[in-house]
Amino acid sequence: VPMEHVQDGQIVLNIGASATPNLAIGDDLIEFTARFNGVSQQIRVPVGAVVGVYGRENGEGLFFAAETPPPETAGDGKTDSPAGAPRTPPRGKPRLTVIK
């Protein structure tokens, strides 16, 4: 998303059916098409990055605690986890990816 729409590292998006063509909400990812300043962009949001869902009409909804990102480690990319061990998905501040 264009950074001028981001405030304090967060953005509020209207993802109603009429505002977001191609809306798809999955277990891990929310995808849709949105327009910013008249420019259509494909948006992908990890479900874990969502900090709230509310109705614009009355402001009522559900809000979640913001997740903090794990500390980054420097190195050669090796982990202490044995091969085949289940990995937890990365968590942290919401991140939006623009798909062109």
For the record, the CATH class is: Mainly Beta
Strand order of the largest sheet: 1-2-3-6
**Overall number of domains:** 1
Distance between the termini: 11 Å
Shape verdict: globular
Order of helices and strands: EEEEEE
Strand content: 25-35%
Number of helices: 0
Name the CATH superfamily classification: SspB-like
Q: Can you name the CATH architecture?
A: Roll
Protein architecture, described:
- The protein is mainly β.
- It has a single domain (1-69, 88-100), classed as SH3 type barrels.
- It has strands spanning 24-25, 29-36, 39-46, 52-54, 61-63, 97-99.
- Strand 4 (52-54) and strand 5 form a beta hairpin.
- Residues 78-85 have low confidence and may be disordered.
